[in-house]
Amino acid sequence: MAYPDACGIDIGSSSHFVAVPADRDGESVREFRAFTADLQALVAWLRQCQITAVAMESTGVYWIPLYEMLDEAGFEVHLVNARHVKSVPGRKSDVLDCQWLQQLMTFGLLRGAFRPADEVCALRAVWRHRDMLLSYQARHVQHLQKALTQMNVQLHHVITDLMGVTGQAIVRAIIAGERNAEVLAALRDRRIKADEAEIARSLQGSWRDEHLFSSKQALALYDAYAEQIAECDVELERLLGALKAHELPDDGLGRPKRRTPAKNAVRHFDTRSALFEASGVDLTRIPGIDTSTALKVISEVGTDLRRFPTVKHFTSWMGLCPGTKISGGKVLSSATKRCSNRAAQALRMAAQALRRSQSALGAYHRRLCARMDRPKAITATAHKLARLIYFMLTKGQPYVDVGQQYYEDRYRERVFQNLTKRAHTLGFQLIPVAAAV
Q1: What pTM was computed for the model?
Q2: End-to-end CA gap in the chain
Q3: What is the DSSP letter of 336?
Q4: If you write DSSP's letter for every residue of 243-294 in order, what string do you get?
Q5: DSSP-assigned letter for residue 330
Q6: In this predicted structure, what is the pLDDT of residue 335?
């Protein structure tokens, strides 16, 4: 589709260069500062030039204020991939870049990137901020473990999670001044496999003051980030409530797949119910997908997938489908494209959790692992999960797990049919072992 009334904008940190068709203004290329007043002048100039479509590159986060302002003003804004708009080598400048964007957009050679609705963008921003806080919190857990190791307190060798029930109870007691190993070991939770004697042996350390001070600081920062994460959970509940478009079924959603939520899952509210009210389907019914994975996918793509005409467009945007690098009828490469899609990363993590799942998807993943190397099998399984999510969100149908045995039986039938055809081609006939005896 051609856009005769198009302009190109080269985004910068301090200023933006804008190019319009040469017949619209005597000065077809102008520079505008990144201040709000200058951006408003930019919008007014585009209206004066009768521009309807805008093409810009996604440069850092500098494009976001201008994109939102142009979108609110009614322009058709296309956020294009920088790899698709490379200019002629040796002619690289801000003025040439914006003119090149305007020329490509005029002839309809650019496609805009996917950007969800504003409500979903707000949810995505808070969820990404929560992920960042979790990573910061994890660093202070490492600092705490390092301080304990320097005192030769080997607690992390006898318990799995230093910030679990037992680990926090012991660490907080140490910070409070307790040094008796037997008293500290008595704080052990009954679910810990190690006995009190082994825990007591791991708690015999040097107790140096400088390392105790570092431990105290690390624990205080851990608690501070925990408070910020709790505030993010409250904000997530409010944003998910704004996306509510469906009602819960009368009989509820049934029992969850796991009794206790994951360690870093949202605990402030019923995430599963809130996600169902926003999307109309329960994505956690898919094996390998928990509430955190479902929330990450919804926050990245939203619930309205009409921007993707087919499931192939959706999986291609996520970077999970095979590549099509073909020349002269020969496939040069079928590797997936390089992209840092957060939803795809979450689905890859979910695919790894299917390794021991007694479901049809679990059997499918193990079959792929037997045929190819594990990274490719994980990507292929994540591709299947993305297809299931697309069909659930677009058609509103619930996921039904047919079970591992059903998949194995279907696989056996396919192998038998293929072997029968192969034998018939070679002039043989397959006879079952029982009939042959």
Answers
A1: 0.86
A2: 69
A3: P
A4: T--S---TT-S---SSSS--TTS--SS-HHHHHHHHHSS-GGGSTT--HHHH
A5: E
A6: 81
